[in-house]
UniProtKB/TrEMBL annotation:
Taxonomic classification: Bacteria, Bacillati, Actinomycetota, Actinomycetes, Pseudonocardiales
UniProt KW Transmembrane keyword: yes
Gene3D superfamilies (alphabetical): 1.20.120.1760
Transmembrane segments: 56-86, 194-219, 231-252
InterPro entries xrefs: CDP-OH_P_trans, CDP-OH_PTrfase_TM_dom
GO MF assignments: phosphotransferase activity, for other substituted phosphate groups
Name used for this protein in its record: Phosphatidylglycerophosphate synthase
Biological processes annotated in GO: phospholipid biosynthetic process
Gene Ontology CC: membrane
């Protein structure tokens, strides 16, 4: 059994294997850049406590939804607080897996809750941006509808990815490796490479979106209106449509469903 008071070096060796940090699509750039270094200190502080990895995941879910709740308020401070809460969500997201790996208690329930957290947060933030563009929770209108429609597209993108695993499981196929996404058509492979160089789809993810929301809120404060927030929402709509269609084509023309 591992120690309840490990060194940071011991934690890093056990909790940061190449299978985690080397994931092509599972590890966010912010995690590799700075949060994985910070999360080890939170993990070490939580190990002597009775909190479970799933308990930390629930904190991750709560911080993400709370961030969306604040983003719906048409104030600069609210957008900044939402950004801070998303950073806190990333911290919890790193720490829950580290605790599970150190204790050897990884479970399907943990994976399930992790997906719930990311899906709900990404969709809720876009919906909250629509509420903000309308002027807040007391001014629900057309912008909120646009935000909700975009949130639905975000959920469709998430579903397109996860349904690959569901389809393969129902067909009795083995799980895919993290990098097993090879496309059969050369033109689509070139398009995928272009997206890797210009990852506009990341604008729909919580970390990037919360940062853009702060920039839009600053523009709102300078202009004395909600123009910045509304422009951001209008930009996100076609991006979401393009990603939904492009991702569906990518899945159907790749080896993932063969």
């Amino acid at each position: 059994m591992h120690s309840l008071k490990p060194s940071i070096a011991d934690l890093r060796r056990t909790c940061h294997p190449d299978s985690v940090l080397g994931r092509a699509s599972g590890e966010h750039w912010a995690g590799r850049l700075y949060m994985r270094n910070l999360s080890l200190y939170l993990t070490r502080a939580l190990l002597p406590t009775p909190i479970t990895p799933n308990g930390v995941t629930w904190l991750m879910i709560g911080s993400g939804l709370l961030a969306a709740g604040f983003l719906g308020l048409p104030y600069l401070w609210a957008a900044v607080l939402a950004f801070v809460l998303i950073q806190l969500q990333l911290l919890f997201d790193c720490s829950d897996g580290e605790i599970a790996r150190w204790r050897g208690t990884s479970s399907p329930a943990g994976v399930y809750l992790d997906r719930i957290g990311h899906f709900s947060t990404d969709a809720a933030l876009v919906a909250a941006l629509g509420v903000r563009a309308d002027g807040g929770y007391s001014s629900i209108g057309g912008w909120t509808t646009l935000g909700l429609a975009t949130a639905l597209l975000v959920l469709m993108i998430k579903s397109e990815t996860e349904l690959v695993h569901v389809a393969r499981a129902h067909a009795g196929r083995a799980l895919l490796a993290d990098d097993e996404t090879v496309m059969r058509k050369r033109g689509l492979r070139n398009l995928r490479q272009l997206v890797n160089y210009v990852p506009f789809h990341r604008l729909l993810l919580a970390i990037e979106l919360s940062l853009l929301a702060v920039a839009a809120a600053v523009a709102d404060a300078v202009l004395g209106s909600l123009t910045g927030t509304r422009i951001l929402l209008v930009v996100l709509v076609p991006i979401a449509v393009i990603v939904v269609i492009g991702h569906l084509v990518s899945v159907l023309t790749s080896r993932r469903l063969r």
